């Protein structure tokens, strides 16, 4: 039986404080890789939802993470004055606006890129997008941690039923499990995700 475990000590589950301490040294490649792996997908997805293309979104993510790391080394980030996610959000919004401004300069009259991040009349919607993406990122990290903890067949049963909407009996036949075992696998993974979520949220 899969037994719950504490969060493993890995790059993926380092606290944001530990990651930031690593960023103090511009030559610390390991810290930079961990920083980018954690936050790049979040910024990219948010930028895409803001109407940017794939290449533009990647550029925005890179410049956002670089800008934050430089500001942190210069002592401009103060955790007493705001959460990390709030600081990243502010930088990302500005970088998206810059990207959209460059696009307008290159293609005058093009309105296809109009999207929420550029609409100053909807600040609540902008923040809601970011918060939703942040929650999704935390959930994905929880699932990745559970994947490492449980048997491959257990996690696959969960994926097929909970994420792909497959019939439990059909999944059981495919994986060599009883229908009850498939339900048990789903419950086990969901229970562990709920256990991990507060810890992952805290370290992010």
How many helices?
A: 8
Main pleated sheet: none
* H/E series: HHHHHHHH
Fraction in helix? over 70%
Strand content: under 5%
Structural class: mainly alpha
CATH superfamily of the domain at 1-122, please? RNA polymerase sigma factor, region 2, helix turn helix motif
Instruction: Kindly state the number of beta strands.
Output: 0
Overall spatial form: globular
Give the N-terminus to C-terminus distance in angstroms: 29 Å
* Unreliable parts: 1-5, 7-11, 115-121
**What's the level 1 CATH class of the domain at 1-122?**
Mainly Alpha
CATH fold group of the domain at 1-122: Rna Polymerase Sigma Factor, Chain: A
Q: Rg to the nearest angstrom?
A: 20 Å
- Name given to the CATH architecture of the domain at 1-122: Orthogonal Bundle
What is the average of the pLDDT values?
Answer: 83
How does this structure look, described?
The protein has a domain at 1-122: RNA polymerase sigma factor, region 2, helix turn helix motif (Rna Polymerase Sigma Factor, Chain: A, Orthogonal Bundle), CATH 1.10.1740. It has helices at 16-23, 29-49, 54-73, 84-106, 123-149, 152-163, 168-175, 179-203. Helix 1 (16-23) crosses helix 2, helix 2 crosses helix 5 (123-149) and helix 3 (54-73) crosses helix 4 (84-106). With 204 residues, the protein is mainly α. The radius of gyration is 20 Å and the shape is globular. The model is unreliable at 1-5, 7-11 and 115-121 (pLDDT under 50).
